[in-house]
Amino acid sequence: MKKSLGNAVSGERRGEVSLQRMYDFSVLREIRKGRGLSLSDMSDCSGVSIAVISKLERNQTVADLDTIYRLGRVFGMNPSELLSLAESRSAQKHTARSHKSGDFIFQEVRYGNIRCLYGSGKSGSRVSDPRVHQDDYELCWVLEGRLLFHLPHERTELKSGEAIQFDALLEHSYEALEDSRFLIIHIRKSKRF
Length: 193
Prior knowledge:
Elements: H1 19-22, H2 27-34, H3 39-46, H4 50-57, H5 65-74, H6 79-86, E1 97-101, E2 104-111, E3 114-121, E4 126-127, E5 136-144, E6 146-151, E7 154-159, E8 163-167, E9 173-176, E10 180-188
Antiparallel strand pairs: 1-2, 2-3, 3-10, 4-9, 5-8, 5-10, 6-7, 6-9
């Protein structure tokens, strides 16, 4: 018996959201058109009927896992990537956690492919901890004060309102030239943003 995502929910109970409202497969139309594919092309490449693709694109049905797999393959995606793109944009609330790194105090929140840190430090504070980095891009935006940013062969002073972006795998450090507040954002290279 073929299980579909839609069969998991026969009706909405109080406080629950139906799977059909959790996923917005209109993204399929955007991707398909962006690749210059017609419904017929998509059907030929995936083996999924034009009628099913059309209903999915108009959010009139939800897909079973086999359909998600076959449609994803057309775009070079695995099922979880396609589901991630189709997931309805609903708010996700997290509470920041605090920690100290070097002489700086950080509050941090993480969401899938992004890590946001709000940092503060007194003049003379320093931090350099390459072990915490993955294959990320890092962006530092100074909100208040001045930071001295170090890479192996360069130093850059960042003042309030200035930002710098770089490959986080490079050895780097920050030094507060005066009391400072700043944001550091890590974005995974391997994920879609």
